[in-house]
Amino acid sequence: GARERKLELKKIRDQEEEERKKVLDLEEEKLAAERRREQIEKAKQLQYYETDRVRTFHSALLLTEVLKERDLQIEMKKRIEQMRQTDENEERQRYQEAQNEFYKTEQEKIENKAKDRANLAKYHLAQMDQRKTQHIQEKQKDQQEGDEYRRLAEQYALEQLELEHFKKVTQKDTKTMYDKVLDDKQKIKQMEQQIDEEEDDELRVYAEAKKKIARLRREKELQAHQEKQEVRDHMIGYLGSLQKRAEADNDTQIFRARAQKEAKDLRDEQEKLEKQQKMRESITKHRFETMKRHEAEREMEEREDAEMRRKKAESDRLFLLYQQEKEKQRIQDAQVTAEFHLKQAQERKDRQRDLKASEMDEIQMDRHMNEVEKQQYQDYTGRVISYMEENGRNTYPMKRVVTDEIKRFDQLNHAYKKTDTPINGNGEKKPGSQDKKTLDETKKHLGFQWDIPNK
Known about the structure:
Shape: elongated
Strand content: under 5%
Distance between the termini: 88 Å
Order of helices and strands: HHHHHHH
C-alpha cells in the first residue's frame, strides 16, 4: 500500500509540474508575441518616417530648429558686440604694442642686411684685387716661358745649321773618295786589258801581273774601307758631341720626341695593316655566316608557309561545317522562339484580363489606405506642432508643409473618385474610366511602378 501511495503522489507531482510548465510556455509565448508585435510596430514606425511626406515634414521641423538656432546666434552676436566694445581700448593698446615690436624687429633686420651687404662688397673687392694680381703674375710667367721657348728655338736652328754644314762636308769627302776609287778601278781595268793583250807572249808575266793586280785591289779596298771607317768614326764622334751638348742644354726632348714620333708612326702603320687584315677576315666570315643563316631562314619560311596553308585549308573546312551547323541551329531556335512568343502573347492577354478584373478592388483598397494615412499624418503632425509651439518655436514652415500635404491627399482622393466607375454588362468600362494615362500616373503617385501590357 505504501508503494502505491508513493507512486500516486509522484504521478500527482508530475502532473502539477507539467501544468506549471504549460503555464510558463503560454506566458513565454505571449511575451514573445508581444515582443514581435513591438518590433513590427517599431519597423512600421521607422518605415513611416522614411516616406516622402514625413521626411518633408521633418525637413520643415529641422528648418524650425534652424530658425531657433539663428535667433540664438543673433542674440549671441549682440552680446559679443557689447563685450567687444568694452574691450576695444585694451585690444587697441595690445595691437599698438605688437606693431611697435614688429617695427623694431624689422629695423634690426634691415640693419643686419646692410651690414651683410657691406661685408660682402668688401669680400668681392678683395677677390677682384687677388684675381688681378694673379692675372699679372700669370702674364709675366707666360712671357718668361715665351722667351725661353724662343731661345731654345734659336739654339736648335743654329745646331741644325751646323749639322747641315757637317753633312755637306761629309758628303763632299765621300764623293771625293768615291771618285778616287772609280779612278783606281778604271786603272785596274786598263791594266787587265793590257795584260790580256800580252797574254799570248808572256804567260809568266801575266800570272805575276795578275797577282800584283789582286794585291793592289786588296790594298785599295782596304784603304777605302779604312777611309770610310775614319769618316764614320768622325761623324759618330761629332754627333755624340752634339747630342751631349743638346742634353746639357735640355734640348734632348726634341730629338727624343722626333724618334718617338717615328717609332709611333711605324707602330701605328703596322697596327693599321693588322687591323685591316683582321677586318677583311671578319667581313669574309660574316658574309659566309649571313648567307648560311639566310638559307636556313628561307627553308624554315617555306616549311612554315606550307604548314600555314595546310592549317588554313583545315580551318576553312571546319568553319564551313560550323556555319552549316549554326544555320541549322538558327532555324530550330527561330521555330522555338516563334512558339514561345505565341505562348507569351496568350499569357499576356490572360494576365491583362485578370488585371482589369482586379483593378477596381485595388482602387477601393488604395482609397481606404489613403484616408487612413491622411488621418495618421494629421495626428502625428498635430502632436509635433503642438509640442513645438509649447517650446516657443516658429511653426510656420511645418504648418505650410502640412497644408500642402493635405491638399495632395485631397487631390489623390479626387482622382480615385474619377477612376471609381463600375464595369458594364459587356465587361467594358465606361468612357470616363478608360483614361489609361491618368490611371498609370495615379499608380505612380501611390508608389506602384509596374507597367500594364497594352491590348
